[in-house]
Design goal:
The protein is α/β, with parallel strands linked by helices. 37% of the residues lie in helices and 24% in strands. Strands 8-7-6-9-11-10 form a 6-stranded mixed beta sheet, with helices on both faces. A 5-stranded parallel beta sheet has the order 2-1-12-13-14. A 3-stranded antiparallel beta sheet has the order 3-4-5, sandwiched between helices. A hairpin with a 3-residue loop joins strand 10 and strand 11. The chain starts with a strand and ends with a helix.
Length: 267
C-alpha cells in the first residue's frame, strides 16, 4: 500500500504553461494519498501547485535545500541547508563580472533577487508567475540575515554554458553543488541540498518504508528520488536513461501523467 507520493514539478506535474491542470489536480486530490512536491523551485514558485492540490504537509524545495510547510502567515521552515553567504556572494560577483551575458538571479526562502530583467528571466517570470526583486548584489548582501538557497544562471548559448561549467570546475567553490538543469540552466545550491535528503527527512518523520512510497519524475536530478522509493514512475516525455529506472511509465506531463499514473498504478 502506497502511503506517500513524491513528485517533481517541471516536466512532470506541470503542463507546458507551468500549471497543474484542473484534471490533474482533481485526480491527485481524489486519490487521498499524501503528496509531497520535490522541486528545484522556490516556495513562491510552488505556492500555486500547493493550493491547487490542497497540500498541508511538508514540501521540498531547492532540490532538497529547503523542507517546509504552508502556515497561516507564510512558510514554516522545517529544515534548511543554505549556502555559505560569503561563498554565494563570491559566486554572484564573479559570474556578474566574467559572464555579463548570462542571466543571473538568486533566492532566499521568501525572496528572488536579480540586478536586471533579461531574456532568461522573462521566460522564468512567464513560467513561474513571479517577479524578482531588482537590486544590486552589494545592496542585497548588506543584509545580516541573508541565507541564499539557490543561485540560478540561464544562457541559451550552448558554448557559453560549457564555458560556465568549465569555470565552476576550475574555481572549485567550497561547499556547493553546481549542476545543469534542462538545456539552458546552471543552478548552484549548498552541497547538502539533494532531493534524496528531503525524501529521507519525510521517510524518517512519518516512519515510512521505501516500499510504501512512490515517485514521479522526468529528469536527471530526479534519479536519486526515483531510486529511493519502492515504485518509481517516469513520464513519457523523459529521456530514455530516466525511463530505464522506472517500474512504470505514465503519460507525459501535458497529458496529466501524474494523476492518471496514480489511478493506473497506485490505486
Amino acid at each position: 500500500m502506497i502511503r506517500m507520493i513524491f513528485s517533481d514539478m517541471d516536466g512532470t506535474l506541470l503542463d507546458a504553461n507551468g500549471n497543474v491542470s484542473e484534471t490533474n489536480a482533481k485526480l491527485i486530490r481524489d486519490s487521498e494519498i499524501p503528496f509531497t512536491l520535490v522541486s528545484a523551485r522556490a516556495p513562491m514558485e510552488m505556492a500555486d501547485a500547493i493550493t491547487r492540490l490542497d497540500l498541508d504537509g511538508p514540501q521540498i524545495g531547492f532540490n532538497g535545500g529547503l523542507i517546509y510547510e504552508r502556515a497561516a502567515t507564510g512558510w514554516h521552515v522545517l529544515d534548511a541547508a543554505p549556502m555559505d553567504t560569503s561563498v554565494a556572494e563570491q559566486i554572484i560577483t564573479a559570474v556578474t563580472r566574467d559572464f555579463p551575458a548570462v542571466s543571473l538571479s538568486y533566492y532566499t526562502v521568501d525572496d528572488w533577487f536579480a540586478a536586471r530583467i533579461d531574456e532568461g528571466l522573462r521566460g522564468e517570470i512567464a513560467v513561474s508567475h513571479q517577479m524578482p526583486t531588482l537590486a544590486e548584489p552589494h545592496t542585497v548582501f548588506a543584509r545580516h540575515d541573508l541565507a541564499i538557497l539557490k543561485i540560478m544562471m540561464i544562457t541559451f548559448d550552448p558554448a557559453e554554458l560549457q564555458r560556465l561549467q568549465a569555470y565552476f570546475a576550475a574555481a572549485a567553490f567550497p561547499g556547493i553543488s553546481a549542476q545543469q538543469s534542462g538545456t539552458a540552466w546552471w543552478e548552484v545550491t549548498s552541497a547538502a541540498a539533494q532531493k534524496s535528503r528531503g525524501i529521507q527527512y519525510i521517510l524518517d518523520r512519518y516512519a515510512l518504508r521505501a516500499a510504501e512510497t512512490a515517485a514521479f519524475g522526468d529528469g536527471h536530478n530526479d534519479l536519486p528520488m526515483l531510486n529511493m522509493v519502492g515504485t518509481p514512475i517516469v513520464m513519457a516525455n523523459a529521456l530514455p536513461e530516466i525511463q530505464a529506472v522506472a517500474k512504470h511509465l505514465t503519460l507525459s506531463n501535458v497529458e496529466d501523467g501524474v494523476g492518471r499514473g496514480i489511478w493506473q498504478y497506485l490505486k
